[in-house]
């Protein structure tokens, strides 16, 4: 018998090499190569035919008939928004996240809701027994006649059951536990999870079934992560959060049916995930009213404005090199703002260690946070507190000018809704709209002017 041919595949990014490598030349990760058998070409089915095997011909664009995608809304408004307005029938959605973050919980809740709107749901689990899922469902208050549990890992049996049952929705929990019997590589390897996903895509498109696939994010090593599947599916959502906190953030990183800027915020409670409808309140909850180095910014997360506290702590450096650390903020942006403060506002920052933080574990990366960043740094440096009823929005240029930002009306409205009394915005943003009367809106043109007005 001919010797089986093998290759080494990086489990992080899918890069293939003929021999073992310690470090992947593609993604730079160490110890991620695993030997996989190259499947003979005849047994690997091409999964590209989305029409389910029938031969299609090219069509003129104008001749393609179009049905408007109906969206199925779940009861979780946060999820609907991240998906771009609801679940698109026949789509393949990948939900990635660290183990234990709540992916199974979210999908079981959604399964319960979808099965009550008239569709049948098949929940395939390769991780838990039907009994365990039932116990979880009881905790979550999920009960429905149209929800089927199916503990299985063999794709050929799963395929047969989908063909027979014809469910409207399928949940695959998780892709790393499923195996396609024709592929000899280990369960959870790049070859396996790619083949399983390609097969699920074919089922979704040919039968119009909506499929949710769970993918655990793995920390290097023998199991491949959802990264290597992103190009194959319609929508990729990541479920993030800190296992020490109860808040969870659902983020779209790819969406063929909507924007990728939206965030969904949930809280993990005893009886499952609850939506957080007003995230600004929780991000500001623990703020100290008279602290120095604190500034509130109204940041746009997708279409939604969120108020977040930026904190700065400056202390004189003990050793020659000044430290700069930033969490939830871009370090380069922090360095840039400090340089501008130094040059344009005469703050002596070069011998100061600076620690910056966006409170509440969010990540802020839009230019409109510049002004609040500068204010928090100057406030800590001068040991002068900011007014707790104020917030700040504006981009700062290298010459110290405060530049116009987008969506100013939404930002100001959100600040006034949360009870803020005054907001500083770029002067150029004052044109072309009428500011609301329940909040004082002050335009500033330069960083110097802003510091003078705010920290006087
Ligand atoms: P789970 O959905 O199993 O995570 P994943 O599928 O992403 O690995 O969530 C596991 C955690 O969630 C677990 O530590 C317990 C917690 N949890 C709650 O706090 N409340 C609940 O109602 C449920 C079902 C789980
Ligand atoms: Mg799970």
Automatic annotation (TrEMBL):
ATP binds at residues 97-104. SMART domains: AAA. GO terms for cellular component: cytosol. The keyword Cell cycle does not apply. The keyword DNA-binding applies. It comes from the Bacteria. Keywords: ATP-binding, DNA damage, DNA repair, DNA-binding, Hydrolase, Metal-binding, Nucleotide-binding, Stress response, Zinc, Zinc-finger. Residues 68-217 form the RecA family profile domain. GO terms for biological process: recombinational repair. A motif (RadA KNRFG motif) lies at residues 254-258. InterPro entries: AAA+_ATPase, DNA_repair_RadA, P-loop_NTPase, RecA_ATP-bd, Ribosomal_Su5_D2-typ_SF, Ribsml_uS5_D2-typ_fold_subgr, Rubredoxin_2. PROSITE patterns: RECA_2 (PS50162). One of its GO terms (molecular function) is zinc ion binding. Residues 353-456 are annotated as: Lon-protease-like. NCBIfam families: sms. Plays a role in repairing double-strand DNA breaks, probably involving stabilizing or processing branched DNA or blocked replication forks. Belongs to the RecA family. RadA subfamily. The middle region has homology to RecA with ATPase motifs including the RadA KNRFG motif, while the C-terminus is homologous to Lon protease. This is DNA repair protein RadA.
């Amino acid at each position: 018998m001919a010797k089986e041919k093998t290759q080494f595949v990086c489990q992080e990014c899918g890069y293939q090499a003929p021999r073992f490598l310690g470090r992947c030349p593609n993604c730079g990760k160490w110890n991620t190569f695993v030997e996989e058998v190259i499947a003979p070409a005849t047994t690997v089915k091409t999964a590209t035919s989305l029409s389910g095997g029938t031969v299609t011909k090219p069509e003129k664009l104008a001749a393609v008939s179009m049905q408007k995608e109906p969206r199925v809304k779940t009861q979780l408004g946060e999820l609907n928004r991240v998906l771009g307005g609801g679940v698109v029938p026949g789509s393949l959605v990948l939900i990635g996240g660290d183990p234990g973050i709540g992916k199974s919980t979210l999908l079981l809740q959604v399964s319960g809701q979808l099965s009550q709107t008239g569709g049948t749901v098949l929940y395939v689990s390769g991780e838990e027994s039907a009994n365990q899922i039932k116990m979880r469902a009881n905790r979550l208050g999920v009960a429905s006649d149209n929800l089927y549990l199916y503990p299985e890992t063999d794709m050929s049996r799963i395929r047969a059951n989908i063909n027979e049952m014809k469910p409207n929705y399928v949940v695959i929990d998780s892709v790393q536990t499923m195996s396609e019997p024709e592929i000899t590589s280990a369960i959870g390897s790049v070859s396996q999870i790619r083949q399983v996903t390609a097969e699920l895509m074919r089922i979704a498109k040919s039968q119009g079934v909506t499929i949710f696939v769970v993918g655990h994010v793995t920390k290097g090593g023998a199991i491949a992560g959802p990264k290597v599947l992103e190009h194959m599916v319609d929508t990729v959502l990541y479920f993030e959060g800190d296992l020490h906190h109860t808040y969870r953030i659902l983020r779209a990183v790819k969406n063929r049916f909507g924007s990728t800027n939206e965030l969904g915020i949930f809280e993990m409670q005893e009886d499952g995930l609850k939506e957080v409808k007003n995230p600004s309140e929780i991000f500001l909850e623990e703020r100290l009213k008279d602290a120095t180095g604190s500034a509130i910014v109204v940041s746009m997360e997708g279409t939604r404005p969120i108020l977040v506290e930026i904190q700065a702590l400056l202390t004189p450096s003990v050793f020659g090199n000044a430290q700069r650390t930033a969490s939830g903020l871009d370090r380069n942006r922090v360095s840039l703002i400090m340089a501008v403060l130094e040059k344009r506002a005469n703050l002596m920052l070069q011998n100061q260690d600076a620690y910056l933080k966006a409170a509440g574990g969010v990540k802020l990366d839009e230019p409109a946070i510049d002004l609040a960043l500068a204010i928090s740094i100057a406030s800590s440096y001068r040991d002068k507190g900011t007014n707790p009823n104020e917030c700040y929005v504006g981009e700062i240029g290298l010459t110290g000018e405060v530049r116009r930002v987008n969506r100013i009306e939404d930002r100001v409205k959100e600040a006034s809704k949360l009870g803020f009394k005054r907001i500083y915005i770029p002067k150029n943003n004052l044109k072309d709209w009428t500011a609301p009367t329940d909040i004082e809106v002050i335009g500033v043109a330069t960083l110097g002017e802003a510091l003078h007005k705010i920290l006087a």
